[in-house]
Recover the amino acids of this structure.
């Protein structure tokens, strides 16, 4: 056999072996794809079975019809979101079963929030962890971020000295407190997240769908100016409750080392006529309360503006209403917030000027967050 013929035979053998190897590799890949598709189909079937059983349970329950629709729509969204996040059907089932159990309890025996409510952390149920664990799968981690995280160290140093800190933020969804905790934990500030006291309106402490999540947060419970006169006959009672809440807040500020989160707008942001969310106008009178408390307590009070981009998760309805039982969605989305540098709220600026300056800072930062998410979503 000539050398050229031998070389040709070797080459042909090599090509045949390579073709066989590629064919086998392709077969294995197709098997994996079929297996993955089959697994996905099985998981989706399991989700649908669980969802169907839960919907039947809701339909046959004594839950008011209005809330039946709210819950079935929400669970449908939540199911799709967890399936998209590649969470097991067991996690979906476990989360929803606990969610419905807590809502049923809230309807049968509504929890009575005190003016200062401290997060319920056990022994049977840790409501703080429940809220975080339930909402965590809705967040697209790789597209979410905290800006100004270095300010957390400064905030912690203020608290360690016994000073008080006020976070002045826009507000976009009911799950803003959970978003703050989930993202701060990622950056190693879980202890700081657990200390935050949120100024909460009546809806999150009265609506049975929101109550279980609110039970897991530190809250100062108030009636906002937007809803305090509705209905008119409840005004004296609501004003008396707000006075009790102010008294509780004064005691906390006097004690010192506390961090509060408040939305000076008194409510959530809404989309404008183009469908884009805009920061709701801040009310300078809501800032008066903290300035007064700071001066009365004689403890240093530090103001940190914050911009939040969370409207992809459980966005609010387009219109403002004081009635309970609003429609909710549970789609996945990216979130972010920016802790801006400390600003002087007790200095020479007049209240209206301070509020206007604060609004501008938060609006500019929010617009930057919108740009960030647009860029990230393109990648």
């Amino acid at each position: 056999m000539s050398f050229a013929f031998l070389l040709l035979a070797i080459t042909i053998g090599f090509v045949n072996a390579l073709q066989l190897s590629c064919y086998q590799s392709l077969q294995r890949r197709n098997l994996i794809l079929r297996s993955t598709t089959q697994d996905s189909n099985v998981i989706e079937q399991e989700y649908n079975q669980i969802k169907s059983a839960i919907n039947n349970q809701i339909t046959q329950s004594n839950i008011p019809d209005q809330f039946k629709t709210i819950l079935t729509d929400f669970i449908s969204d939540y199911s799709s979101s967890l399936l998209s996040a590649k969470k097991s059907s067991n996690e979906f089932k476990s989360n929803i079963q606990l969610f419905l159990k807590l809502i049923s309890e809230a309807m049968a025996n509504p929890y009575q929030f005190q003016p200062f409510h401290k997060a319920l952390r056990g022994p049977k149920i840790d409501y703080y962890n429940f809220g975080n664990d339930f909402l965590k799968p809705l967040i697209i981690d790789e597209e979410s971020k905290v800006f100004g995280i270095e300010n957390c160290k400064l905030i912690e140093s203020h608290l360690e000295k016994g000073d008080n800190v006020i976070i002045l933020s826009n507000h976009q969804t009911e799950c803003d407190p959970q978003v703050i905790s989930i993202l701060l934990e990622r950056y190693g500030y879980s202890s700081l997240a657990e200390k935050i006291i949120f100024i909460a309106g009546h809806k999150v402490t009265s609506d049975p769908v929101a109550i279980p999540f609110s039970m897991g947060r530190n809250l100062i419970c108030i009636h906002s100016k937007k809803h305090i006169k509705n209905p008119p006959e409840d005004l004296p009672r609501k004003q008396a409750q707000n006075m009790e809440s102010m008294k509780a807040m004064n005691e906390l500020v006097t004690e010192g080392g506390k961090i509060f989160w408040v939305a000076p707008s008194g409510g959530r942001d809404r989309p404008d006529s183009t469908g884009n969310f805009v920061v709701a106008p801040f009310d300078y009178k809501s800032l008066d309360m903290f300035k007064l408390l700071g001066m009365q307590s004689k403890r240093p009070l530090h103001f940190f503006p914050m911009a939040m981009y969370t409207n992809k998760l459980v966005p609010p309805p387009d219109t403002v209403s004081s009635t309970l039982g609003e429609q909710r969605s549970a789609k996945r989305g990216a979130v972010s917030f920016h802790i801006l540098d400390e600003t002087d709220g007790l200095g020479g600026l007049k209240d209206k000027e301070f509020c206007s300056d604060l609004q501008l800072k938060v609006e500019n930062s929010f617009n930057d967050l919108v740009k960030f998410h647009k860029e990230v979503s393109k990648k």
